[in-house]
Amino acid sequence: MRQHATHPGTTNRSQGGFSLIELMVVVLITIIITGMAVTSIPRISNNFRISSDTRNISAQLSQARMVAAAQFTHARVYMKLDSNSYRLEVWNKTNSCWQTYGDTNNCTQATSPITPLAWGDTFGFGSITAGPTAATTTIAQAPKCTPGVAGAAAGTAINNTACIEFNSRSYPVDSTNTLVASDAIYLGNNSTTYSGVAVSIIGQPTAYRYSGTGWFTY
């Protein structure tokens, strides 16, 4: 069999390795990609947290509508703005008080469990000047909660709270029991990410995210 001769002073390319320059290029590219991934992690985490909280509040509002209609009473989602937490409450017609949904005790909304927002999430809308719908052009949190049910005996508004209340026909109402179309709740995360849930006059909640230039549905 004929064999190919290797000339003196030449190198067989099939047996050669990477040069130092090639290795440095690979390492540099790896460092750049890793750096980009690391800097993206906080932003991605913020988006996940605020998206989860927004969808959870939207789900609670949908549940409040159904509970109000099913039990022929009023129901609401009670937001505690100073502690960044919320809960679903149902008006107990027998004892004339708000009762945390699922609680077997009567009139225990003051001490019942309340769901906290995720770490870094707060109720607020920063410097945003308009809400996501025509009814929420003037941006604001939902009205303050009251100790009583919407109507003549609603009582004095409770500071550092926001409530979206539904009547027995699953429509959103204000403290005078009048239908409203501007109920909304807004959340922020480290002043970089914002979202909101707006409730239409028929009671349908819709979750939104703020892109920096406008609102878009999730």
Coarse shape? elongated
> Mean of the pLDDT scores?
87
What name does CATH use for the topology? Answer: minor pseudopilin epsh fold
Counting structural domains, the number is 1
Sequence of secondary-structure elements: HEEEEEEEEEEE
Radius of gyration: 28 Å
* CATH architecture descriptor: 3-Layer(bab) Sandwich
Query: So, the CATH homologous superfamily?
Result: minor pseudopilin epsh domain
Please report the number of helical segments.
Answer: 1
Approximate strand percentage: 15-25%
Segments where pLDDT lies below 50 for 5+ residues? none
Structural class: alpha+beta
How many β-strand stretches? 11
- Highest CATH level, the class: Alpha Beta
Distance N terminus to C terminus? 72 Å
Helical amount among residues, as a percent range? 10-25%
How does this model look, in words?
- Strands 1, 2, 3, 4, 6 and 7 form a six-stranded antiparallel beta sheet that branches. The protein has a five-stranded antiparallel beta sheet with strand order 5-8-9-10-11.
- The longest helix is centred in the first third of the chain and has 51 residues, at 20-70.
- Helix content is 23%, strand content 24%.
- By secondary structure, it is of the alpha+beta class.
- The protein has one helix and eleven strands; from the N terminus they run αβββββββββββ.
- The protein has one helix at 20-70; strands at residues 75-80, 85-92, 97-100, 115-116, 121-123, 161-166, 172-173, 184-189, 193-199, 205-210, 215-217.
- The chain starts with 19 loop residues before the first helix and ends with a strand.
- The mean pLDDT is 87.
- The chain has a single domain (18-217), classed as minor pseudopilin epsh domain (minor pseudopilin epsh fold).
- A hairpin with a 5-residue loop joins strand 6 and strand 7.
